[in-house]
Write a structure and sequence with these properties.
alpha+beta; FAD/NAD(P)-binding domain; Alpha-Beta Plaits; eight-stranded mixed beta sheet; five-stranded parallel beta sheet; 14 helices; 23 strands; about 25% strand; globular; binds flavin-adenine dinucleotide
């Protein structure tokens, strides 16, 4: 078939769906994006189908670079709209499991913005392509075709309940964590596909604050992380600047250590983290929202590439294929890299079954990096629920990997070369195997080049800002960076 006559349907107009549509428009005549929400808002707006958008969404540099390849200039566009570029580790005061991290020269960066801004900006760019048709306020209800081949989807109008069939040569399910694909495949007579689950029970509690008036210019992000070796529930706090002179503050706790939904105890929870700095910073900041919670945080992975009887004409992309504990910030990078895999494979072949098998293997490879990163760490936390056949989660293998990352993490706090290698891995810019390079191992043997830090590593200018704070506690607890 002439590529111009081929039709693709993408289910879900979140980040993965919109990026998939952008890529497919290069290889198909028309691409229809189906989403049950109203996607017509004239600017960034919260929407029902994206409840996680109320929470902190950092986009690591590896994801930002892929987005710039798919949508040239996107990063600059986001920055112009107010997104912040936070250098890693330079622009973030990080208290990791291994102590305060020196703010060495930038190895990577993150883009910090509201998820609504990020999604809206991507959506506007993708919608500008005339081959992309958006059918919003339309719910996907099932797949058309047979166990051998998916040939389209059944959709229903949210406005009047009218049902329509949309034929397609390719259907991409990007409906996120709540994807109904397993059920839909069962309706076509297929056996259930393998699914793994690693669930720490982590709960997120997020609140927006107005950046206090004593902060002029830029102030770093702040992260307080748990120590996964202490046998206690993992509790964290993150404070990041976003557009509109706001701080987004996310607190989280794994099973047994969850933050409550109560506004009054938000600052108290932050004060009881391994370091109280976030509580001190928000102590006199004006809250702009109530506390919002999310429990949609389990690591969950489907293995379509392993299914003996996967139908042609169907792909999973984004959270519908695999979703991760958000603490690692790997969901959006994985969605972006998955779209890039789709583009790469479609550019080198037709959209036939052999190409699709290559796409599925490529998507599985992308997912695997984030999956292993999150799950080998998460199984340390008390009462983590594991339903997985992944041998890498068996104690011997997981412990060996963690011993390496613990040694690297400890050294990274005080050695720039090792920090750079570690943050490449943390941001998914490099695989874990890159930590075994002679350069890194040599630096590890050579030992620390910098003294341990006893206090948050604020610069003289940042300390001067803190001294202007009305909060005595902040002034007293933040001596100069070492
Ligand atoms: C609390 C929290 C914090 C997070 N923080 C980060 C972070 O810091 N960094 C990061 O990279 N990732 C983070 N993530 C993960 C990130 O949100 C996801 O990886 C990302 O949203 C995946 O995008 P997606 O397009 O696959 O799914 P979604 O963004 O969930 O989009 C799914 C879309 O499908 C639509 N839809 C669903 N069902 C149907 C249907 N039947 N018919 C029609 N439309 C449908 C929805 O309306 C929605 O638009 C976080 C997640 C959570 C829960």
């Amino acid at each position: 078939m002439n590529p111009g006559e081929r039709q693709a349907v993408v289910l879900g107009g979140g980040l993965a769906g919109m990026l998939a549509a952008q890529v497919l428009a290069r290889h198909f005549g028309t691409v229809t994006v189906v989403d049950r929400d109203d996607l017509g808002a004239p600017g960034p707006q919260p929407r029902t189908g994206l409840p996680q958008a109320r929470h902190l969404h950092q986009l690591w540099s590896s994801g930002a670079r892929v987005l710039d390849t798919l949508l040239p200039g996107l990063t600059q566009q986001l920055l112009r709209a107010g997104a912040k570029r936070v250098g890693i580790p330079t622009g973030n005061a990080l208290f990791s499991a291994y102590g305060w991290q020196h703010r060495f020269p930038e190895a990577q960066f993150m883009l910090s913005a509201s998820r609504d801004l990020l999604d809206w900006t991507v959506r506007q760019r993708v919608r500008a392509d005339p081959r992309v048709v958006v059918r919003d306020r339309t719910q996907a209800d099932g797949l058309l075709g047979s166990a051998e081949a998916v040939t389209g989807v059944v959709v229903r109008s949210v406005a009047d309940g009218e049902t329509t069939e949309l034929p397609a040569d390719l259907v991409v399910d990007a409906t996120g964590r709540a994807s109904a694909t397993r059920r839909w495949l069962a309706e076509l007579g297929l056996r259930p596909i393998e699914e793994d689950l690693v669930d720490t029970g982590i709960t997120y509690a997020t609140r927006l604050f107005r950046v206090p008036e004593w902060v002029d210019g830029s102030f770093p992000g702040v992260s307080v992380q748990p120590d996964h070796r202490d046998g206690r529930p993992g509790q964290s706090g993150y404070l990041l600047p976003i557009e509109g002179d706001r701080w987004i503050v996310a607190l989280s706790g794994t099973r047994g250590g969850e933050p409550s939904a109560d506004d009054a105890s938000f600052t108290e929870f932050a004060g009881n983290l391994r370091h109280p700095i976030i509580a001190e910073l928000i102590g006199d900041a004006e809250p702009l929202t109530p506390v919002q919670r999310s429990r949609s945080t389990a690591n969950r992975r489907l293995y379509p590439e392993r299914a003996a009887d996967w139908p042609t004409g169907l792909l999973l992309l984004g959270d519908s294929m695999a979703s991760f504990n958000p603490s690692y910030g790997h969901g959006m990078v994985t969605a972006a890299r998955s779209a890039a895999v789709l583009d790469r494979e479609l550019s080198s072949g037709d959209a036939g079954p052999a190409t699709m098998r290559r796409v599925m293997r490529g998507l599985a490879d992308v997912v695997d990096e984030a999956w292993t990163f999150a799950t080998t760490q998460d199984i340390c936390y008390p009462n983590c629920r594991i339903r997985s056949g992944d041998d890498r989660l068996l104690p011997q293998q997981a412990n060996a990997r963690r011993e390496l990352t613990d040694a690297i993490g400890t050294a990274a706090a005080r050695q720039p070369e090792i920090a750079s290698a570690l943050f490449d891995v943390v941001t998914l810019a490099a695989p874990v195997s890159s930590l075994m390079q002679p350069r890194v191992l040599g630096a590890l043997r050579a030992g620390p080049t910098h003294p341990p830090l006893k206090a948050p590593p604020f610069t003289a200018e940042e300390l001067a800002m803190l001294r202007r704070s009305t909060r005595r506690t902040v002034r007293e607890s933040t001596p100069a960076a070492g």
